[in-house]
């Protein structure tokens, strides 16, 4: 993995990611197993956060500095539904998982991508 996960402005630092995932799980009222202060983010997601962000940016044709955890792909970054379908496809290929198309409604921001991947990887 490159050091891109620690780039300022990308919003993928481990502590920030752990806190964001924990907050999202609690806020949505769907606290998943293991969602808490300690170890809320699956290790594979934490380890590959920079790579995941880079993939999202490549598909959405945007710069990593412009993508925060809660920036909405459509509203804030100008993506369309075809880009989201393309993103879903790239995630399946890159992580060798199957993601149900119903998960598209959760792929609205980077946090949603982390959540969907975590679920698909059984974490």
Description:
The protein is mainly alpha-helical and 123 residues long. Helices cover 46% and strands 0% of the residues. The protein has 5 helices and no strands. It has helices spanning 14-27, 43-47, 49-60, 81-95, 110-120. Helix 3 packs antiparallel against helix 4. The longest helix is centred in the last third of the chain and has 15 residues, at 81-95. The radius of gyration is 13 Å and the shape is globular. The protein starts with 13 loop residues before the first helix and ends with a helix. Residues 1-39 have low confidence and may be disordered.
Beta-strand residue percentage: under 5%
Q: Name the shape in a single word.
A: globular
Largest sheet: none
Order of helices and strands: HHHHH
Assembly form of the protein: single chain
Number of helices: 5
Structural class by helix and strand composition: mainly alpha
Taking the alpha carbons of the first and last residues, their distance comes to 20 Å
**C-alpha-based Rg, rounded:** 13 Å
What is the mean pLDDT?
75
DSSP, total strands: 0
Q: Percent range for helical residues?
A: 40-55%
Pick out the low-confidence regions. 1-39
